Amino acid sequence: MNSAQTGGSMLIAVTGTPGMGRSAFLDAVAVHAEQHDFVVRRARGSRLEQGLPLGRPGPARPETAGRPVALLVDDLQRAGQPALTRLTALLADPGPGPLLMAVAVCEGEFATEAPGVQEILSAADQVIRLGPLGTEGIRALLGEHGIVLADDQAHAWSHATGGNPTLIISLLQRLERAGRGASAHLLDTARAQPAPWSLRSRVAAALTGHPESVGRLAACAALLGGEAETHILARLADLDPAEGDAAARALIGLGWAADRWTPPVLWDCVREAAEEGISLAERDRLHRRAAELLHDSGAPAERLVPHFMEVGPGDWPEAARVMRETAHEVWRGGDDALAIRCLRRALREFPSDSPQRGDLLAALADVEQNADTSAMLRHAGQALPLLEAVPERAAVVARVPLTLFLSAPHAASEMLEQAGAGRTEPMVPTADPVTRPAPKAPEPSATSATSATSATSAMSAMSETSETSEAAELGLRLEARVRLSRLGDPAARAAAVQRLRTLAPGPVPGPGTAARRELMAVLVFAGVLGGRLPATEVADRTRWLLEHEPASAVSEYGASALTIACAAVAEASEPARCWLDTALETARQRDDRRLRTAVLSRRALTAVHAGRPADARADAREACATVPGPARDSLGDHDWLTVLSLTSVAVETGDTWLAERLRDRLAQGQGAGQPVCGLALRVLQIPLTAERELPALAADLQDAARRAEAAGWGNRTLFPVDVWCAPLLLRLGDPEGALRLLARACDRARHFGAPAALGRTLRMWGTVVRGRYALSLLAESVAVLRESSNHLELGRSLTAYGNRMRDAGRPGSDGILAEADRIAEATGGAVLRRWIAPQPLSPHGAPPCGGVPVAGGLLSETEWRVASLVALGHTNQDTAEALGVTRRAVEKSLTRLYHRLGVDGRAGLVPAVRRMAGKAVFGSGVLAERL
How far apart (Å, rounded) are the C-alpha atoms in residues 906 and 901? Predict the structure, then answer.
């Protein structure tokens, strides 16, 4: 402007690709010119008014009485020849007074190359080319609309829009329609909305005037949906190589990189326009052709899927094969959802009775193992009748996760019958399998122990004759599933123990194979449920299984679930704990939240049976808080062991938050009809049941326990429902009923031989009865528990025994209670360490996952924290820093604590606080208030 005022005239050209802000630049020039006393005149080129000079008739320069003039022309490339001629003349003879002419020209438009436009551009005194915004510019633009972005979000917006201001503004317009959510998802929310009409019209205008081949190439690139070489785009658009290269260069001139599909937001808009401008038949043809070209060029699988989803069945013979290959590839990459979509689309290529459809259903069932177990069982069952050969059907059944044959018995029985499990001939192929037609389904008949024995004997014999063959491995896996599905039959449980003795006569049978370990886990579990294996043998065998089973292969429904359950009740807690620690790291590395929930719950079960309630409570709470959203999302429909584990922890620790969360899940989940889940739901309902409804609940609970036992769940150490029912009967005034349950539980625990379970039951029985019989039971409890590693139960029994002896005036009570105090002190140290450990924030407002000792009583929670830190060896300064207070405040708290607890200094405080925490844990178990 200064140059124009002093030099007479000045021509400025503003260029840039579509959407870079040329009009906004001219708007700013107009404001600035008015502030400097220029007479501002605006004009815009338009295809509708190309016959008029500068868009409307009138003099080229107004009468301004000597004032400087600013003539601003937008979209010069769209002006007609008369307007261009008059502008050229005005530049040659600007007339009296200073003249500033600023023209905006859009790069890449077809008319930009017109001679009249190029003549004006070549005469410009200065050319200003507008480029894309950087990340800071994008932040500033969005900041004007109240949106603040983090660094990674700003880079995402930059990649999506290429820094094009018009594209950014279009996303903001979409957000106004959709409503704003979290800033981290604003870009996805905006892109999910249709492009505004203003953007679509500008895109159409940019293509106007170009040869038809440019528009066709742009439409095909948009429909292809990602990076592609130019020759592929040209073939899709039915262009020869020369036409394709020319069209690609024209799009590059507009700033649209068809081969790189940048910027993505622009191509989203082009795709919307292209899909609306073609017929459905043409759209199907283009998607089918795109799928063929991408597949032939070796494009990644995820590029093929969107096009296959748009192609109708039967349109491309290769669709099913390619979709299955794609599903396998993305499944191996961890994308189960996309693999499921691919296989379901491939199923549409075949009729309902096609053998190929059976093969695809079996593949779909494999993919759904971790995503939807109910759908997996359904699709595996649908696949079996369609497969012609017995070996194929047996292989499908053998790939179904093992423990589902326990939690879904009806579906499992149907699959086993279709695979030939009800037949007396071998159910698996020989070492050299021969394809044969599917056998006719047997006539319906009652299942007998004889048929089960003959079927499994055939498999056993085959497994032993060819241990290294693939057929033998398949035989072992199928045998494991058959035996697990028949655990409700006492004869089958007895046969399982006999088979275990044959398969592995000693406790250390050698390394074995994965299939052999799977079968052994089932056989050991059958022996535990039926009470036919002693705890010592169970501990030895589970220890061997855990030593040879890699924790890196952990799965939600694998044989390790059975092994961990057996190890927990047989008091093989240390090997189980080490194995689960490694398995938890595996689940975290996979980022598999459901598996992490399962592993945490199993670790909690091991901890509660080992007498570590604080650890059990922390793991159980973390398991429940692992998955965001409703509680039902954190548990599989058939994960009975997770339900059993969390129920055990909730009951044994009295954790109301955990009980509520689990109760809500069971009340609405599909698994509530399973024996374990049904019992757990009833047990968790006890605290919420009104007093008048308790008798009905007690009867229902005992009836459910009898049904569960009839179904094979007879081990009351694994699921101690008798022990959990006893307090309910005492509350109802039925001590005789409670004593009957405890006596029966004691007999079963004595038969199984796990010291902790037997000692606990004896202690509970001894606290219910009176007189010398009580002392006899408690004395036996103490003696039994001295053989166990569960020091918590020993401390409880010593406390109960010492108190009863003191009340009866018997000598020796002081020594017994002193020993109980020492155990309480050691137990309290572990509880305090768990309590003061930093706890991660849990979702849904859940309280921290750590175990809290006694927050009330003599001490406030703050005093407990000070006392706990000091009791664990922290200095006053360390305690002050941990609590965020001054050292002087800690010293004052300690002085009050010494006085309140009646101890002499720190040396007396440490054991006193630890004992208090330990005794609080002693009193938190079932019937522990009677110590």
Answer: 11
CA distance 358 to 393: 10
How far is it, in rounded angstroms, from Cα 679 to Cα 53? 88
Residue type, 227: E
612 vs 318, 323, 836, CA distance in Å? 59, 51, 16
User: Is residue 447 within a helix (H) or strand (E), and if so which, with residue range?
Assistant: none
Which tokens sit at 548? 């040879």
Burial class (CB in 10 A: 0-12, 13-18, 19+), 902: exposed
What length does the chain have?
931
Of 765, 724, 712, 720, which is closest to residue 743 (Cα–Cα)?
765
Continuous segment of H or E residues that includes residue 656: helix 656-668
So what's the pLDDT on residue 4?
77
Distance CA 493, CA 489 (A): 6
Q: Running DSSP on this structure, what letter comes out for residue 872?
A: T
Closest Cα to residue 411, out of 489, 521, 340, 485? Answer: 485
Pairing between β-strand 69-74 and β-strand 99-106 as defined by DSSP bridges: parallel
DSSP run (H or E) holding 9: strand 9-16
Q: Residue 12's closest CA among 104, 108, 109?
A: 104
3-state secondary structure 91-148: HHCCCCCCEEEEEEEECCCHHHHCHHHHHHHHCCCEEEECCCCCHHHHHHHHHCCCCC
Q: What integer pLDDT is reported at residue 51 of this predicted model? A: 45
Statement: residue 672 has pLDDT above 50: no
Long-range contacts of 731-740 (CB under 8 A, 24+ apart): 731/694, 732/694, 732/695, 732/698, 735/768, 738/768, 739/765, 739/768, 739/769
Sequence-distant (≥ 6) Cβ neighbours of residue 553 within 8 angstroms: 514
H helices of 530-558, in order, are: 535-548
**From CA 409, how far away is CA 423, in angstroms rounded?**
18
C-alpha 365/C-alpha 336 separation (Å) is 11
| Residues in CB range of 36: below 8 A, 6 or more apart | 1, 5, 68
Share the mean pLDDT of the chain.
Answer: 83
In this prediction, residue 509 has a pLDDT band, given cuts at 50, 70 and 90, of low
Q: Which two structure tokens, joined as six digits, stand for 412? A: 């499992």
* pLDDT above 70 as % of the chain: 86
DSSP character for 386? Answer: G
Sign of the torsion formed by the C-alpha atoms of 463, 467, 471 and 476: positive
- Best CA proximity match to 18, nearest among 71, 72, 100, 77: 77
pLDDT above 90 for 901: no
Tokens 């300064």 locate to 877
Residue 357 in 3-state DSSP?
A: helix
> What residues are paired with 40 via a beta bridge?
70
Backbone angles phi, psi at 487, to 5 degrees: -70, -15
Q: Which residue has tokens 């029966």?
A: 744
Q: Which of 456, 339, 422, 437 is nearest to 392 (CA)?
A: 437
| The predicted structure's pLDDT at residue 104 | 95
DSSP state of 763: H
Question: Tens of pLDDT along 554-605?
Answer: 888 889 999 999 999 999 999 999 999 999 999 999 888 888 999 999 999 9
In three-state secondary structure terms, 69 is strand
Question: Helix (H, G, I), strand (E, B), or coil: what is residue 67?
Answer: coil
Count of beta carbons in the 10 Å neighbourhood of residue 207? 23
Residue 584 CA to residue 593 CA, distance in Å, equals: 10
Long-range contacts of 653-657 (CB under 8 A, 24+ apart): 653/608, 653/613, 653/616, 653/617, 653/851, 653/924, 653/925, 654/924, 655/617, 655/620, 655/621, 656/687, 657/621, 657/846, 657/847
**608: three-class secondary structure by DSSP:** helix
DSSP state of 722: H
Query: How does DSSP classify residue 467?
Result: T
Please give the Cα distance from 419 to 458 (Å, whole number).
14
Mean pLDDT of 649-671: 81
The backbone torsions φ and ψ at residue 172, rounded to the nearest 5 degrees and listed phi first, read: -65, -40
pLDDT in the model for residue 805? 92
